[in-house]
Design a protein that fits this description.
This protein has about 400 residues and is an alpha/beta fold. Helix content is about 40%, strand content about 15%. Strands 1-9-8-5-4-2-3 form a 7-stranded mixed sheet, with helices on both faces. Strands 10-12-14-13 form a 4-stranded antiparallel sheet. It is globular.
């Protein structure tokens, strides 16, 4: 096949750093993969990861758990959200996010998003007034950070708990403040295609002692809570221990040993991703029927993927995406009739109540997504640009 073709899978990930491999080897040689134990010395890997996250964000507490979805579930539950409560959620997100709310038995009410995939503040206020929610689980989906000043003002004015899903924004900020620090808690993911690759895992950061105590207990601490990296007071633990079930959502030592060194090199990877994103943005500018969502001026993003919006009929778009796939550039399309792999939207989730979302539905119909390995070379980025321009340039 003549013309541009990418020879490297976009699902590939860079090799783990040597110190992550060393940590993994030490854990495996010890055979102690469980984070707790009656005779475990100070300084377990999970505890060290918790201290490192708390230090990184300047929070009092960090609680490591087994997935980003578990982090959201535990953060909401530990903030006081109960079965039957209404939890707002922006319509552009991924299935584990409404899944965390459903896990609680709470009711999901979707909020519209605008042409740049950001939560629509007018619709957020309307949903708050109409539904009187207990909380807003704000998903910074695919790294798109909303007007956080406006979101916080609305939540505070109406007494709505704010919890952030930061699975795609470890290292992003709004107005100089990192995502994850705008509400009651921030929830991060350590899944393979996120900023830190431990295969799976999650971390909650918070300054709320009661939330931290409840999350630690519910994650399954077996009253070995003192082995946490950032333990709350014994008073807070005892306040909640009799009323908190063990939900078995702990992070293991192997994942923590792999994750910990990567936090130290986070900004290096994010800088590489930003450079890749800028090259793609410049290379694809000006294509007909193709628009790139705009980032707010106050946002420093941390993109692990690239999105564009195609204003084309479904059959035409499908044909152009097929050209890209044939040339080694698979592109996810959120407008497909059925959920495909990791890609789904609210209409695919039968457990979520339908609500008119005119802006979001119009945008999601043509939303396309390219995964970005952080070690893509300039030549490989140029090839991706050439393939997309070949498919969409007419």
């Amino acid at each position: 096949m003549e013309g541009p073709r990418l020879r490297r899978p976009l699902t590939s990930v860079p090799p783990l750093p040597a110190n992550a491999m060393d940590g993994a080897k030490a854990v495996l040689e010890s055979a102690r993969l469980f984070r707790y134990g009656e005779h475990v010395p100070e300084g377990t890997w999970v505890a060290r990861l918790e201290r490192a996250f708390a230090d990184h964000f300047g929070t009092r507490f960090a609680v490591a758990v087994n997935s980003g979805g578990s982090a959201m579930f535990l953060a909401l539950r530990s903030a006081g959200v109960e079965a039957g409560d209404v939890v707002l959620l922006n319509a552009f997100t991924l299935a584990p996010v409404p899944g965390a709310i459903e896990h609680l038995g709470a009711r999901v009410v979707l909020v519209d998003v605008d042409e740049n995939l950001l939560v629509d503040l007018e619709d957020l206020e309307a949903a708050i007034v109409e539904h009187r929610p207990k909380a807003f689980l704000l998903s910074h989906m695919r790294g798109h950070v909303a007007d956080m000043a406006g979101v916080v003002a609305l939540c505070e004015a109406h007494g709505v708990l704010l919890v952030e899903d930061c699975a795609h924004t470890l290292g992003a900020s709004f107005g100089g403040r990192p995502t994850g620090l705008f509400g009651k808690a921030g929830c991060f993911s350590l899944q393979t295609w996120k900023q830190i690759n431990a295969g799976e895992g999650g971390v909650i950061v918070t300054d709320d002692e009661d939330l931290a105590a409840r999350a630690i207990l519910a994650s399954g601490a077996y009253m070995l809570h003192a082995q946490h990296g950032t333990p709350p007071s014994e008073e807070a633990i005892q306040r909640w221990a009799p009323h908190t079930p063990n939900c078995s959502m702990r992070l293991n030592e192997l994942a923590a040993a792999i994750a910990l060194p990567q936090l130290a090199s986070l900004e290096e990877r994010n800088a590489a991703w930003r450079a890749i994103y800028r090259r793609l943005e410049a290379g694809l500018a000006g294509l007909p029927n193709l628009r790139i969502p705009q980032t707010l001026p106050d946002v420093v993003h941390a993109p692990t993927s690239f999105q564009f919006l195609a204003a084309l009929p479904a059959e035409d778009l499908e044909a152009r995406l097929a050209i890209c796939a044939e040339r080694g550039v698979p592109i996810k399309w959120f407008g497909r009739q059925h959920a495909t792999g990791f890609t789904s939207v609210h209409r695919h989730w039968g457990y979520v109540e339908a609500r008119p979302l005119p802006k979001g539905d119009a945008v999601l119909a043509g939303l396309c997504d390219i995964r970005l390995p952080s070690d893509l070379t300039e030549e490989e980025v140029a090839t991706v640009v050439a393939v997309v321009r070949l498919a969409f340039g007419h």
